[in-house]
Amino acid sequence: MFNPNFNIMKTKISTLLLLPFFALLMFTSCQEEVVDITPPAETEALTASAPLTALMSSASKMDGSKDNIIDRASCLSIKLPVTVVVNGLEIIIDSEEDYKVIEAIFNEFEEDDDRLDIIFPITIITAEHDDIVINNAAELKEFVDECKGENENDDDIECIDFKYPISFSIYDANFQVIDVITVENDRQLYKFIKRVKEGEVFASLNFPVTMVLADGTEIVVNNNQELESTINEAKDTCDEDDDNDYGDDDFTKERLDEYLKICPWVVHEFKRNNQDNTTDYKEYALNFKEDGVVKMRARNGDILTGTWSTRVTPRGALLKLEFDTLADFTLEWIVYDIEYGKIKLYEEGGNRIIMKKNCDVVIDITKERIENYLQECLWRVARLQVDGNDNDKNYIGTPLKFFANNVVKIRVNGEFVEGTYEIGVRNAGFILQITLDGRPNLKLEWFITFLEPGVIKLENDNNQMVLRRHCPDGDSDINYIDDVLVTGEWEIALYKDGDVNKTDEYFMYTINFLENGWIKVTDPNNGIIDGNWLAYRYEGLHLGMHYGIEPPFQVLNHRWKILEINPNRIELKDLSSTGEIERILVLEKKA
Length: 591
Fold this sequence. Notes:
Elements: H1 15-18, H2 25-28, H3 51-59, H4 68-71, E1 76-78, E2 82-86, E3 89-93, H5 99-108, E4 116-118, E5 122-126, E6 131-134, H6 137-145, E7 160-162, E8 166-171, E9 177-183, H7 186-197, E10 203-205, E11 209-213, E12 218-221, H8 224-234, H9 253-261, E13 265-272, E14 275-276, H10 278-281, E15 285-288, E16 293-297, E17 303-313, E18 316-322, E19 331-339, E20 342-347, E21 351-357, H11 367-374, E22 378-386, E23 389-390, E24 400-402, E25 407-412, E26 415-426, E27 429-435, E28 446-452, E29 455-460, E30 463-470, H12 476-486, E31 490-497, E32 500-501, E33 510-513, E34 518-522, E35 528-537, E36 541-546, E37 558-566, E38 569-575, E39 581-589
Antiparallel strand pairs: 1-5, 2-3, 2-4, 5-6, 7-11, 8-9, 8-10, 11-12, 13-14, 13-15, 13-21, 15-16, 16-17, 17-18, 18-19, 19-20, 20-21, 22-23, 22-24, 22-30, 24-25, 25-26, 26-27, 27-28, 28-29, 29-30, 31-32, 31-39, 33-34, 34-35, 35-36, 36-37, 37-38, 38-39
Helix pairs in contact: 3-7, 3-8
């Protein structure tokens, strides 16, 4: 939750405050994201000997089991790139994907003696996230011998992780907040908790915090007690795969069957006979049933029924799929890699499927289910492409609201404009058709190709639309942003496009954000420019603004990412496709 009592701008912390905590700069100097702060009670402070502190330390240890096929040690990892000689063949390993190459060479012949030699020097990363240079095999053996053996219990917790970033409040002896730091990864968290355990830092975790289970399920916790309970309940619920092969060749048939049945699986990549068919099958969803029946939902909503079975052979685990009307999927596939939430299949001749688990995907779509989803919250038009043209900018700040009596409303300049919608049934699946005055692009017959509680994807010929759910009532961050925006008048303190400062173009303009989503801009001659705004969460916090075609504000029509916000200042950024900042927009409260 944002707290207006704290200034969360991390790049302008007072020098005096930084002196006692200069070492913490490594956590904060590169941060650009908004920090969620909930000031805790004194009882929420972490103590050196508390069980929660130990659990957080174990959960943030480095898991070294991924490269056991090279170093045969789960408590350390070899820093890439590294050169190895596998059965006489020299290979440069520069990514985790290359571990599969080693596995393939080992599996090429069943009766040969597999051998792997490492070319030194190398750098290892210990469980405590320390980098150590190793010059020869004897030095490496000393570290390996200190690790537990295959599948033995060890101190690290791998079945649950923190979803980063998270933040901590730092206190003085009087329990006054003097700093806030942000932690972006396990290494930073482990080093920070080490300082807590050694008594160097007096701190507490800022809630809420999201934890991620091994199967990808997310759990939101709101205090120390919930966090400790959540970690304890999850820490032994998965296979840590601390053996010395790569991937999951040790999967039993029973474990593979249960893994497949746990949730629907969505196709992300598909290749058949060396032909890339991902475009044809992306977002097809498969549901593996108890009785050997598999239900597949195509993008147009069609449901195809087939059969599935598994077996474990010297080649590894195999998954056999059979569909009467879908030959591309009908094959006995080798399960060559299993990660949490992901499964990869292949067969010789250029055949490959990558599927990801998605428990929210609906296989059996019904008209009632579609209507229920639509009526849950507001919906943003996140993408709208018609006849090759992107039209979604016209819907920035104008969410849709669907009602039970086939009424749909769109919020424009603070007022809801009423229209109608229809869920239709066609031979090819379900369609959504929206009728709103002045919005002909929405009236197309949109086939519903993907449905889950937070997103609905639609297609028609070469046209695409994506609706994303917007439920602001339960989001404390969005509520805080809304409260800040509607309080007082704003002006543009900085607008920088690349290296060009264009702030002067907005001199003397006054911006009012009204509660009903209307932006009212008053120009120096007391003219009015109307606009729409919406603060929302999607892979971070954003402020969408649309001012129509009125200069100079028309160039600000964008879904801006919120870089910083406090009651008197909002800093926004526009990112390129590569993540580089292309534009900066700063709004400040008028005196």
